[in-house]
């Protein structure tokens, strides 16, 4: 899971965790790319939103949603865990939909 400002990578996370990992340099990222093959990544924004980034998904519009301050890589491509739906789409859509125009 990588975070970017423009073309510069500002954060890299690789571990599946049971809790949130704080972003340091990547906190003000403009974009994110989930480079994992079968694990989803929950992005926690300072405004409380927690969208899911599915495997292979990339977003370059993070700042339109807010400021990402934490990440949690899940053992599920759709960010489902223990039977609970945890994420929402970047623009409030379900996580299985793309954030198109």
Describe the SSE topology.
Blueprint: E1 2-5, E2 8-12, E3 21-22, E4 31-33, E5 41-45, E6 52-53, E7 58-59, H1 62-65, E8 68-73, E9 80-81, E10 84-85
Antiparallel strand pairs: 1-2, 1-4, 3-8, 4-7, 5-6, 5-8, 9-10
How would you describe the overall organization of this protein?
With 101 residues, this protein is mainly beta. It is built from one helix and ten strands; from the N terminus they run βββββββαβββ. It has a four-stranded antiparallel beta sheet, with no helix packed on it. A four-stranded antiparallel beta sheet has the order 3-8-5-6. A two-stranded antiparallel ribbon has the order 9-10. The N and C termini lie far apart (24 Å).
Summarize the structure in short.
The protein is mainly beta and 101 residues long. The protein is built from one helix and ten strands; from the N terminus they run βββββββαβββ. Helices cover 4% and strands 33% of the residues.
């Amino acid at each position: 899971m990588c975070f970017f400002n423009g073309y510069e990578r500002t954060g890299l996370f690789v571990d599946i965790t049971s809790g949130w990992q704080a972003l340091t340099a990547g906190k003000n990222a403009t974009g994110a790319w989930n480079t994992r093959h079968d694990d989803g990544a929950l992005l926690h924004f300072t405004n409380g939103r927690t969208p899911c980034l599915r495997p292979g998904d990339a977003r370059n519009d993070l700042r339109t949603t807010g400021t990402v301050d934490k990440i949690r890589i899940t053992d599920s491509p759709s960010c489902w865990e223990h039977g609970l739906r945890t994420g929402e789409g970047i623009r409030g859509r379900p996580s299985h939909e793309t954030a198109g125009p």
